Automatic annotation (TrEMBL):
This is Heat shock protein 90-6, mitochondrial. Residues 316-326 have a biased composition (Basic and acidic residues). It comes from Sesamum radiatum. It comes from the Eukaryota. Pfam families: HATPase_c_3, HSP90. The keyword Secreted does not apply. The keyword Nucleotide-binding applies. ATP binds at E117, N121, D163, M168, S183, G184, Q207, F208, G209, V210, G211, F212, T262, R457. Residues 110-272 form the Histidine kinase/HSP90-like ATPase domain.
Amino acid sequence: MHRLSRRSVSAVLRNAATRYRPLSSSFPLDHHPAVQSDTTKRWCSVLTTGSSNGIGDTKLFNMKNNPVVGRRFESTAAASDASAPPAEKFEYQAEVSRLMDLIVNSLYSNKDVFLRELISNASDALDKLRFLSVTDPKLLTDAADLDIRIQADKDNGIITITDSGIGMTRQELVDCLGTIAQSGTAKFLKALKESKDAGTDSNLIGQFGVGFYSAFLVAERVEVSTKSPKSDKQYVWEGEANSSSYTIREETDPAKLIPRGTRLTLYLKHDDKGYAHPEKIQKLVKNYSLFVSFPIYTWQEKGYTKEVEVDEDPAEASKGEQDGKTEKKKKTKTVVERYWDWELTNETQPIWLRNPKEVTTEEYNEFYKNTFNEYLEPLASSHFTTEGEVEFRSILYVPSIAPTGKDDIVNPKTKNIRLYVKRVFISDDFDGELFPRYLSFIKGVVDSNDLPLNVSREILQESRIVRIMRKRLVRKAFDMILGITMSEDKDDYVKFWENFGKHIKLGCIEDRENHKRIAPLLRFFSSQSEEDMISLDEYVENMKAEQKDIYYIAADSVLFLVDPIDEVAIQNLKSYKDKNFVDISKEDLDLGDKNEEKEKEIKQEFGQTCDWIKKRLGDRVASVQVSNRLSTSPCVLASGKFGWSANMERLMKAQTVGDPSSLEFMRSRRVFEINPEHPIIKTLNAVCKSNPNDEEALRAIDLLYDTALISSGFTPESPAQLGGKIYEMMNMALLGKWGTSADGFQQQVNPTSYVPETVEAEVVEPTEAGSKK
């Protein structure tokens, strides 16, 4: 045997690993024809060039006389594909009982939907019959009425659902109920599409073929008795919740025969027998299947009153005879006679499917009150149909007041939108899928025929169709709110803004795409209208000719932002009708009336004073500048372009998890602006040039800064120290005018002769009246 050195082997393997596909260094030969007779597995190195243990010639490995390196080799299994036996095909196997358990207990999160699913199946059966009867009228001869009847036996825990639909043959029972996830409705719709009559409108609901099994959510045993016009026999399908098999038999009891259709009998589990109460059945029908296109009757107990005679007391009767009365009225009492009868539970024509021109305002309002349990009429409503890529019908409402006790507008989860698919209620539990959270107050119904739902039909899946539907719903909501602004009664929008103004402002922050729709809805107080709120359109109309921007907070013509959310909303809105929003509390304010030559002179005159004041204030301000916005005040503390305003600083301080480091950084962006026309600033300018180290002047700068903090809306760092400075200045002013001698006579005092020491005001903790300390 030829041997390779360890170094050679390593080199060969490295070369092979870098240039060719990795191969196993050894592989079994027990599948090769030359060694099939050998029952012991043997292994051969691919590096062997000669024979190995007499197993066979190396030609079997396609190595010939060359080493393995430099050629690509396949395993013997790949080399012998042509002679290998064909692969066997297997079907997936499933433990049926386990699969049924998954379908029943994993797909559905709410047991109440079992009745919705079974009613939907019954509605599909009726729809199929109605469609087929167009070409074959004989199908309706056995039973003309197309309806669904539900009867509950609360004593025995049994629910019976009967429809007069198309029914099923024996083979259809096997195919539809015996094959999990096979939908008879889906097969029927496929046949319709392939037929010439594919254009016929259909309201068939079923899609997935698992709705029937929802019966096992509440039933331990289900019995399906069905009669098809195609068969002269009636068959019964029976299945249990925890069984992997079912039975089918022919119905032989004459009392249980039905002319056509299907009767489902649910034998409820012990814990779910509460569903067998007639009131519960009626409630579920009205919640989920109120608008199914066929009448649904429920078996209900009813009563009527009548008068019945009451037997007289023997003593009173004998007394009457002694009195000689010949005629006497018989005594009666009112009793209630109880009986059971069928009662229509659903409305077959939902209001949103009607022509909007035929629906009155009173009908819209009544539907709103009944559907959402409201007692006040809505402010506005919108009834519309969208067609094209996504088709749906909807009615939207704007409530007249916001819900009490729900001031938090951050939570997008509401039950204000009721989603229907083919008139069957699906869900009202949404988390922003149909409306953004700032429009979560909108109420209404949405009905579509082709929404992407999960198998349980409880969850709306995220898809392009849902996004398109959301966009159209949002636009319709804006149109409806805009209609309120145009109402003849101006109080309608005032009422709307008082209840939902914060929601609209939140939209400025969260929905940039709809800024153009949100901005006309905003309302603010302004310096021109302090009593009544105005729109941005009204503000722009009243702007001065030279005014280029929309100012807010403080000036001759500004918007007053009084709500905490206002500033963030306006900052996100940025502009309106080509007019930028400008916060005049920020530095470098341009009011449009600049005189560059005059400003240059003033900056030269007060440049040294600005540096002097900045040196005194230090890191408390970012810079000191000459102001062009002040007229009567000596100074103002403005925010830097990228710093927090006073309002924002208060909001950030109030945050529970606020970052102190960012607070200090943004605070340092303040800009101290001085009014060069004010006497105090002129005096300080003179002191700066003559005696910049004067203690009184430096203390005056400190007091100016603290005063500017308060007047600009900021919070002073040390209120107690500021109080001490104010008391000191008051004392100096009073002593300067009213000096008091020891004998009580007033005399003039030179204020410069008294230099008090600055002290902090005493802080006294509040105590209850009458308490002792």
